[in-house]
Amino acid sequence: MSESPQYRPLYRQVYDMLVKRFAAGDWGPAQALPSEQALAAELGVSQGTVRKALDALAMEKLIERRQGKGTYVAEHTQESSLFRFFRLTRPDGERAVPTTAESSAKRREGRAAELARFGLREGAQVVEINRTRLVDGAPVLLERIVVPSALFPGLEKHTPLPNTLYQLYQREYGQNIVTTEEQLRADVARKDDCRRLKLPPGSPLLHIERIGIALDGTRVEWRVSRCDTAKLVYAVTLS
Amino acid sequence: MSESPQYRPLYRQVYDMLVKRFAAGDWGPAQALPSEQALAAELGVSQGTVRKALDALAMEKLIERRQGKGTYVAEHTQESSLFRFFRLTRPDGERAVPTTAESSAKRREGRAAELARFGLREGAQVVEINRTRLVDGAPVLLERIVVPSALFPGLEKHTPLPNTLYQLYQREYGQNIVTTEEQLRADVARKDDCRRLKLPPGSPLLHIERIGIALDGTRVEWRVSRCDTAKLVYAVTLS
DNA sequence: GAGTGGTCTAGACCACGCA
DNA sequence: GCGTGGTCTAGACCACTCT
Questions:
Q1: Per-residue confidence at B3, pLDDT binned at 50, 70, 90?
Q2: Nearest protein residue, CA measured to C1' of D9
Q3: Closest-CA residue to A126 (of A137, A142, A110, A105)
Q4: Is residue B145 within a helix (H) or strand (E), and if so which, with residue range?
Q5: DSSP A178
Q6: Which one in A29, A85, B72, B181 has a CA-CA gap of 20 to 30 Å to B191?
Q7: Cβ B181–A235 below 8 Å, yes or no?
Q8: Bridge-based pairing state of the strands B177-188 and B204-214
């Protein structure tokens, strides 16, 4: 292993090295990594050290380990990952799979608030996606998604956009969102909200702002959702 | 180690045994556990196996390990734990330490919805706590807390109640809340909300329902919070 | 210096998936 | 039967804390 100025345990160095290689796209999603033995030999450390690094990566859901088969880069495809950041459920706790209606995407110059959030310089382009999401055929959720155009070239031309954008980000652009920071507020429906969600004036709405953060710490997506919580509630387990 | 009908790894058995002993109160909060060597000798397993169990417990914040000193039962006292389940922050992201005003606690018969949530039989007693919480001297949050009286005998006589109830639960009643399940909705302020939070009619409120779950899986607390999100927002990081 | 947890190694055996 | 990850052990050495 390479020397490091400040001390870091061996398994940590292995961990960091693997994260870097994920970010660089050395192994695509759903692809098998070398076996523990192979990695250990390649890096000149013991299998136990590699194992400790891999266990930590599995804990953070960056990889998936299957006994008897091998170790795979986690894919944002499975049911489990599908709902990883989607916290809206039916009021009884049942999962809801929303469909998409009235989706639009366009490229334009970033506004000040957007540039600040992404740390972009003035004049930078962004892609804005607006969509209405339905559950059981009824509109319940409005989403406005803004991403830096430089990270997602041509995203606005992807039609139709898939239901699960994060999978697209990962597969087509190598942007692996692993963390989200969300802020929730209560708000009252504005005229536009009422029209699109078919709500009476003055209805309460759950206003959710999310920043999506990629593997390397880059802020990659800003998402504002406005939700009619008569039909979907935000559910989260903390432990 | 004792035999188990269905197979569980050794380190898992050690883990479960330790959890049981925490629940039974064998070691009080902030008390040192036996050393890894001592535990290993006592249980007749290797130190590595004990270590794996302890590492898992540390990951779940049930214990704290300090190199050179020992392993301690986690205390719900430190700044870090104080905010473990308190997700409300100022809109700019700054932590807010709310104070309590107008706190009341009374014992009464549980209502149907409460009994159902706790799995209690009809006629069981509960303790209900109502309080208004202030930030910078202004009321921003209403809390209604309901707990089974059987688990918290005499709780209604604790005056004044501390700001951090979970610490009290742990220290006085051995109830260690380690998980919470929350549901968030947007709502409009009712008359009572407006009066207590000094809000104009029709203001939006964030309505939060929380179930607090103890170490052994028991549902121990039901908490309904209604929050003026002009002053505090709900912030959560998912990863 | 003694005792603690933290890191690292080497090797054994088990459970699983697949050809 | 082979290769994979999963468990378990035993022992060495390091880093930290306290006396």
A1: very low
A2: B46
A3: A110
A4: strand B138-148
A5: E
A6: B181
A7: yes
A8: antiparallel
Protein-contacted bases of chain C (C-beta within 7 A): 3-11, 15-18
Q: Is the pLDDT of residue B1 over 50?
A: no
Using an 8 Å Cβ cutoff, are B16 and B60 in contact? no
0.90 exceeded by pTM: no
CB B91 within 8 A of CB B233: yes
Pairing label, strands A204-214, A219-227? antiparallel
Of A135, A117, A113, A142, the closest CA to residue A203 belongs to A142
* Gap between the Cα atoms of A209 and A212, Å rounded: 10
Chain A contact residues (CB < 8 Å to B): 59-60, 84-85, 87, 91, 178-188, 202, 204-207, 227, 229, 233-239
> Rounded mean pLDDT of A181-186?
97
Give the mean model confidence (pLDDT) for residues B223-231: 97
> Helix, strand, or coil here: A28?
coil
- Which comes out higher in pLDDT, residue B29 or A175? A175
Determine contact, residues A1/A10, Cβ cutoff 8 Å. Answer: yes
Secondary structure (3-state) at B48: helix
Is A2 a residue whose pLDDT tops 50?
Answer: no
Question: How far, in Å, CA of A35 to CA of A70, rounded?
Answer: 7
The whole-angstrom separation of Cα B144 and Cα B224 is 5
Q: Which nucleotide is nearest to A69 (CA to C1')?
A: D4
Measured between beta carbons, the chain B residues lying within 8 angstroms of A215 are: none
Q: Which residues of B touch A59 (CB under 8 A)?
A: 59
Residue of B59, B206, B227 to mutate, testing the A interface (most A Cβ within 10 Å of its Cβ): B206
Nearest CA in chain A to B211: A237
Tell me the pLDDT band of A32, cut-offs 50, 70 and 90: confident
pLDDT at B2: 40
